[in-house]
C-alpha cells in the first residue's frame, strides 16, 4: 500500500461567523444518535461560535489547516485534550482555514480570551451526566476497531485491532517500528506509529534487514521516475508511494528523530551493495530549517562517508535556499532537496540519479534507501 500525503478536507460549507450552533458528525451519523460524547468528559458535539473576533491565547497545543469549521470541530472532538478551538476567519490560497486546538476554555481563563479579528472562538457547552448517549455506528471506532454496546444498546467502548489504542482506536500502541516488531509485526509493510504522542504517522517498516525495526524515511528505485525536484512545503509534508519511491516528510522525520536514532544508508547496483550507518541522527523542526545532526559512522562494503560535509546542515529546496554556498542554489542545480554544504556535497540521494560519490559503484546505482531505528 502507499502513503497518501494529501488532505481530504472539503471546501467550506458554512460560514464560521454566525450565531448558529454547529453539530459535527463524524463519518455516518444515524438518525437515532443525538450527538457525539466521550465519557466521562461528556462531549456533546455541539460547538457555539461564542466570541467572533476573539481567540484563546496560550493554550494552543495543535494547529492544522482545514476546509471548514465542521472539520475543525471534528478534529477537536477526536482529541481528548481539546476543550475549545480558534477558527481562522480568512482562507488561504488553497481555500483552507487555520484551526487551533486549545487544551482549556475561555470560561476557565477569561483574561486569555482576547480580541483577534483573524479568528472566531468556539466552545462546547457542557452537559450534565446522562443527558446524551449514542449508539454504535459505522466509523465511530476507527482503524478496523469494533464498537461494543452496553446492555441498554448504547456505545460502551471500542475494541481495537493489534497496533491501535485510544478511546476510538485513533492512536498507535507503538512509538517506532522496533515496537511494532515486538508486537509481532514481522512483515515489511506500512504500520501506524506515534513517536512523540502527537498523533499517528503511517510508515514503511523494514523488519527483515539487520535485525528489523527500521523506519524507512526515503526510498529510490530504478528507473527513478518519481519527481524529487519539489518545493519546501512538499518536502515538509512528504510525497511518493511506499511501493516504489517516496520521501516520508521533514515534519514526520523531525518527530521520529526527537529521540536520536541510527541512520542506515543502503546502496545497491546490479552487482554490488554498500551500507553506511550513522549514530545519534536527529532532524530539527521547521524553526531550524530541519537541520540534521549525527556522529560516528560505521561503513561496510566500501560505501564511504559521503555525508561527512553534510553534517549540521539545514535542509534546502529550490524555493528555500539554506545551503552555505553564497553564489548559487544547490537545490536548483541538483534539482532536488537535501542538506547541502557549500560545494553542494558528495551526497544527494534525492537527485534524479542518486549521488553517493564515495561508493565506487555509485554511477551504476539502481536502488537506495534511508532508514532510522
Automatic annotation (TrEMBL):
<feature type="domain" description="Fibrinogen C-terminal">
    <location>
        <begin position="168"/>
        <end position="373"/>
    </location>
</feature>
<feature type="disulfide bond">
    <location>
        <begin position="160"/>
        <end position="169"/>
    </location>
</feature>
<protein>
    <submittedName>
        <fullName>Fibrinogen-like protein 1</fullName>
    </submittedName>
</protein>
<feature type="domain" description="Apple">
    <location>
        <begin position="48"/>
        <end position="126"/>
    </location>
</feature>
<dbReference type="InterPro" id="IPR036056">
    <property type="entry name" value="Fibrinogen-like_C"/>
</dbReference>
<dbReference type="GO" id="GO:0005615">
    <property type="term" value="C:extracellular space"/>
</dbReference>
<dbReference type="InterPro" id="IPR014716">
    <property type="entry name" value="Fibrinogen_a/b/g_C_1"/>
</dbReference>
<feature type="domain" description="EGF-like">
    <location>
        <begin position="132"/>
        <end position="170"/>
    </location>
</feature>
<dbReference type="InterPro" id="IPR003609">
    <property type="entry name" value="Pan_app"/>
</dbReference>
<feature type="disulfide bond">
    <location>
        <begin position="141"/>
        <end position="158"/>
    </location>
</feature>
<dbReference type="Pfam" id="PF00024">
    <property type="entry name" value="PAN_1"/>
</dbReference>
<keyword id="KW-0812">Transmembrane</keyword>
<keyword id="KW-1015">Disulfide bond</keyword>
<dbReference type="Pfam" id="PF00147">
    <property type="entry name" value="Fibrinogen_C"/>
</dbReference>
<feature type="transmembrane region" description="Helical">
    <location>
        <begin position="20"/>
        <end position="37"/>
    </location>
</feature>
<keyword id="KW-0472">Membrane</keyword>
<dbReference type="InterPro" id="IPR050373">
    <property type="entry name" value="Fibrinogen_C-term_domain"/>
</dbReference>
<dbReference type="InterPro" id="IPR000742">
    <property type="entry name" value="EGF"/>
</dbReference>
<keyword id="KW-0245">EGF-like domain</keyword>
<keyword id="KW-1133">Transmembrane helix</keyword>
<dbReference type="InterPro" id="IPR002181">
    <property type="entry name" value="Fibrinogen_a/b/g_C_dom"/>
</dbReference>
<comment type="similarity">
    <text>Belongs to the EGF domain peptide family.</text>
</comment>
Amino acid at each position: 500500500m502507499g502513503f497518501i500525503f494529501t488532505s481530504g478536507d472539503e471546501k467550506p460549507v458554512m460560514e464560521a461567523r454566525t450565531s448558529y450552533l454547529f453539530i459535527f458528525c463524524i463519518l455516518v451519523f444515524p438518525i437515532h444518535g443525538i450527538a457525539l460524547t466521550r465519557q466521562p468528559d461528556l462531549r456533546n458535539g455541539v460547538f457555539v461560535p461564542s466570541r467572533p473576533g476573539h481567540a484563546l491565547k496560550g493554550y494552543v497545543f495543535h494547529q492544522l489547516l482545514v476546509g471548514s469549521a465542521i472539520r475543525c470541530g471534528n478534529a477537536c472532538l477526536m482529541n481528548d485534550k481539546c476543550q475549545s478551538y480558534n477558527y481562522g476567519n480568512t482562507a488561504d490560497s488553497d481555500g483552507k482555514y487555520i484551526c487551533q486546538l486549545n487544551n482549556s476554555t475561555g470560561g476557565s481563563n477569561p483574561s486569555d480570551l482576547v480580541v483577534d479579528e483573524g479568528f472566531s472562538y468556539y466552545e462546547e457547552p457542557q452537559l450534565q451526566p446522562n443527558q446524551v448517549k449514542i449508539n454504535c455506528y459505522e466509523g465511530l471506532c476507527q482503524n478496523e476497531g469494533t464498537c461494543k454496546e452496553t446492555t441498554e444498546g448504547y456505545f460502551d467502548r471500542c475494541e481495537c485491532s493489534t497496533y491501535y489504542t485510544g478511546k476510538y482506536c485513533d492512536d498507535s500502541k507503538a512509538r517506532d517500528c522496533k515496537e511494532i516488531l515486538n508486537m509481532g509485526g514481522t512483515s515489511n509493510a506500512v504500520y501506524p506509529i506515534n513517536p512523540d504522542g502527537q498523533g499517528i504517522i503511517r510508515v514503511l517498516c523494514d523488519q527483515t534487514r539487520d535485525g528489523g525495526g527500521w523506519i524507512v524515511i526515503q526510498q529510490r528505485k530504478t528507473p527513478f521516475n518519481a519527481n524529487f525536484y519539489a518545493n519546501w512545503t512538499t518536502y515538509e509534508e512528504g510525497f511518493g508511494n511506499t511501493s516504489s519511491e517516496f520521501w516520508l516528510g521533514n515534519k514526520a522525520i523531525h518527530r521520529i528523530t526527537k529521540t536520536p536514532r541510527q541512520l542506515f544508508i543502503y546502496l545497491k547496483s546490479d552487482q554490488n551493495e554498500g551500507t553506511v550507518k550513522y549514530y545519534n541522527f536527529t532532524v530539527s523542526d521547521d524553526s531550524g530549517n530541519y537541520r540534521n545532526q549525527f556522529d560516528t559512522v560505521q561503513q561496510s562494503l566500501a560505501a564511504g562517508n559521503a555525508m561527512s560535509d553534510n553534517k549540521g546542515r539545514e535542509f534546502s529546496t529550490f524555493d528555500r535556499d539554506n545551503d552555505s554556498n553564497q553564489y548559487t542554489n544547490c537545490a536548483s542545480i541538483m534539482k532536488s532537496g537535501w542538506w547541502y554544504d557549500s560545494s553542494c556535497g558528495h551526497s544527494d540521494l534525492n537527485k534524479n540519479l542518486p549521488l553517493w560519490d564515495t561508493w565506487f559503484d555509485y554511477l551504476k546505482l539502481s536502488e537506495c534507501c534511508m532508514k532510522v531505528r
